[in-house]
Specification:
single chain; alpha+beta; 2 domains; six-stranded antiparallel beta sheet; two-stranded parallel sheet; elongated
């Protein structure tokens, strides 16, 4: 009798286990569906989330772009300054002191004839900016290419660098573009002579100064500067914070250099 009861109990337990085993997948499946249903997002929730992401992006992306542009300008201004002065020192080893180098004169073509800008200050042996740069600096600077523009009213030569920047080599004033793509030409007086677009002083282009025979190194433009920060900002002609671009806001590079090649916090053009 006892054995019979044990066997019956074992049979019942076995049946229960069998029933549980057969039902378990179904319960698991139902549980999964329930959780999946709870985890899903409604269309309204998705649209709200995308809207928030769009607003945040609209607020932050312009700031990030402006910050990147400022850092690009700062790093390339500093790099240009140090690269040019290093090249000048290297060139002096082979070509002698800067004071003995050829002078640069301005020359362009008009109606098929060479035009030379009169300048009583240019003395000694004279070279065009193209000839001068290829002789004195090109061998000591890594540049992508050097271009001569025979129709530019300033007789400048364009030098392009691997980092995307460029400089216009002039007789005394050199104009540096952190982004070469920002350089634009416009017609000057008639269709045969061009000038650079001068509206981007302190923003797309910056003024430097190097006059062979008169200065010994490349400098951020500081002609007539009285040595004060206020003068760099508000000089009636060259001040960086002036609205007028007639004089290229020529002191902007010097102002940034005076701030350890960092654009000041109150700089109005970035």
């Amino acid at each position: 009798m006892r054995n019979y009861s044990l066997n019956k109990e074992m049979i019942n337990n076995k049946n229960l286990r069998e029933v549980h085993r057969n039902c378990e997948p179904h319960f698991t499946h139902l549980t999964h569906l329930t959780h999946a249903k709870r985890a899903a997002f409604t269309l309204a929730e998705v649209l709200i989330t995308l809207g928030i992401i769009g607003i945040v992006a609209a607020l932050t992306i312009p700031t990030l772009i402006a910050s990147y542009k400022k850092k690009t300008v700062e790093s390339r201004l500093s790099k240009f300054y140090s690269t040019m002065n290093q090249a000048i020192k290297l060139s002096e080893i082979e070509n002698g002191p800067v004071s003995t180098w050829d002078s640069i004169y301005l020359m362009w073509e008009h109606d098929g004839e060479e035009q030379v800008a009169p300048d009583e200050n240019v003395t000694g042996v004279k070279s065009t900016s193209y000839e001068w740069f290829n002789k004195y600096l090109s061998p000591y600077i890594k540049n992508v290419r050097v271009e001569k523009d025979d129709h530019d009213r300033d007789g400048t030569t364009r030098v392009y660098f691997a980092d995307g920047s460029m400089v216009l080599v002039g007789r005394m004033s050199w104009t540096f573009y952190p982004e070469a793509k920002d350089f634009q030409t416009i017609e000057y007086n008639d269709n045969s002579i061009t000038d650079r677009d001068r509206t981007g002083g302190g923003v797309t282009n910056f003024s430097f100064r190097f006059t062979p025979g008169k200065t010994t190194s490349m400098q951020a433009y500081d002609d007539l500067w009285d040595g004060t920060i206020d003068s760099l900002k508000y000089h009636q002609n060259y001040g960086c914070y002036n609205e007028d671009t007639t004089y290229d806001r020529a002191y902007c590079a010097k102002l940034i250099q005076s701030n350890n090649w960092k654009i000041p916090d109150d700089y109005p053009w970035f």
